[in-house]
Amino acid sequence: MIVTAEQPLKKPDWLRGRIGSGSNCNRMTSLVREKGLHTVCDEALCPNKGECWEQGRATIMILGGVCSRKCRFCNVQEGAPSGCDMEEPARVAEAVKEMGLDEVVITSVTRDDLPDQGAFIWAETIRRIKEAVPGILVEVLIPDFGGDKDHLQTVLDAGPDVLGHNLETVRRLYGSPRPQANSWQSLELLRRASKQGFMTKTGVMLGLGETV
Question: What is the CA radius of gyration of the chain?
Fold first, then answer.
């Protein structure tokens, strides 16, 4: 153990998270509660929530707040989800319109418990948003739908502008952070969407033991 008398370095101001308390942040908070929506910002305890909400940005999470999987890097509640809110797409569209957005990001929990793993709600949400706000850019960050190509096609047919699906880590490490997922399955999902002309994107975490 190394003992030092030096004072620890303080975090720079730009790195410090600020609790949102501005008028726009309060408006966003009220709107999310009024519409009964979930956001990644809340469910994942994102430290940037205050800053983003004050600027009118939020990532809406559909299909409830309980995930049927247990990825070890995620703070979203896992367990046995119950039911499916068929009115959720309409409420999401209303909220997006009231927020005055010209671009929105939608994600969801994984719903292995549903026959279509939530594909219909995904598609309906995309359609409702585009009807409510013509010209809006809709970016989606979707689960793997268990590798079912028909469920994926249901979402693609709704016409998202950007389709995201995160690989999260390299194939060798998949069993640790994502024990219920498969890297080949995720790559195939992205390939299918890209082959149909959709703009696709993915994300990975660094520092889990990968090598260059």
Answer: 19
Helix (H) or strand (E) holding 38: strand 38-39
Annotated domain spans of the chain: 20-201
Cα 208 to Cα 177: distance, rounded to the nearest angstrom: 9
Write the DSSP string, 92-135. Answer: HHHHHHHHT-SEEEEEE---TTSTTTTHHHHHHHHHHHHHHSTT
Window from 106-120, 163-177, 189-203 with minimum mean pLDDT = 163-177
* pTM across the whole model: 0.81
What's domain 20-201's architecture?
Alpha-Beta Barrel (3.20)
Confidence of residue 182 (pLDDT cuts 50, 70, 90): confident
Measured CA to CA, the distance from residue 113 to residue 81 in angstroms comes to 7
CA-CA distance, 39 to 26, in Å (whole number)? Answer: 15
